[in-house]
Fold:
Amino acid sequence: MEKFKGLGRLLIAVTFFTSGFFVNIAQLLLTVLVKPFDKKLARHLMGYLIYSFHSTLVCVAEWYAGTKLRVYIDPEDEKKYIGKEHALLLMNHSYEIDWLTAWMITEKLGLLGNAKAYAKKMLRYVPIMGWAWWMAEFIFLDRNFDKDKIVIKKQLKEIFAYPDPVVLLLNAEGTRFTPAKHEASVKFAQERGMPVLKHHLIPRTKGFTASLPTMRGICPGIVDINIAFKKNAEPKPTMLTQLNGDAVEPYMYIRRLPLSVVPEDEEKAAQWMQDFFAEKDRLMESFHETGCFFKTSGVKAVPEKIYKPTLSSLLNFIGWASFSCLIILYYMVSSLLAGNWIGFFTVFFILAGCKLSKEKYHKHCAIFNILFPVYGLMEYTVNASKISKASTYGAKK
Structure:
């Protein structure tokens, strides 16, 4: 059984790399040949390319691993607003794969192709994923507020001029929740007389308040996503779990707020964000204590909806996987016939890597990534894109 999991991981890695590589090429052609003459068309087509790339991992989570989203959402919000308008997306960053569950729900809401994020500047140089995000006009920041506020103003005007609805992810916590970072966050809150959060880090408000003046009038809504997994859930909600084909069970509460509820005054807007995260913390506390977001949080209950996997993500993955396998087969046969033994055995040893067991993978991870670069590149790309890598918040100096 472990051998089949190894084959599955290898196929996913090859498909991820191949789809990303060719998506990058298509993006470059769009950027150079179409965008200067018809920006609207270029951005519309760019959404399809990003969907095709991102949905490969959505397919892995849903069709291969069997993960299903249990979502609590107001039917009126879904019918009238979410997926129908530009919006700022706020989300907790508590788990290794919360970004993947966000891709899953945006795919169901028709937003995956135009789901963007604030990201650290160095990410745009990461092969495949970073390049894809760069050409898709994600907002890359330098961690220098004087420079960043100029970039924010300019880029917000650009992305909210898209012909199709865009959601822009702002992870206000800045980094993934860990015990060490939470301890630092608690200390920070206590020193400043702020409410102590149990399940979140204290949100950083500068990026949010810097974005508000530009967003008013062009971005009408805020979409708040609260992602939770049950405590001590097995298997653990990790990327390796998904690559091994093991299902996890994410719970999600989604709500839409008009941007107009946020005060225009900068200090009051910052306080609004702090109060909002205090409410998000009550939602998470209620979930972990009672198994329900609403029982003790004081937030009005909404119906549960279980989203089924979409056929489009499956067909997209099958298409890229088939294309990838044909390329490998063609190269191996051509190398064999031409006597290109170096090329033939290079591919052979890459394929042989799939026989590593889960335990040997962890033990020999560094060697594996050197000898079998396709899998290593996927791991590096996904790891580099994690927001937890973007900050040393809470780290000991």
Q: What stands out?
A: Confidence is low (pLDDT under 50) at residues 354-372, 387-397.
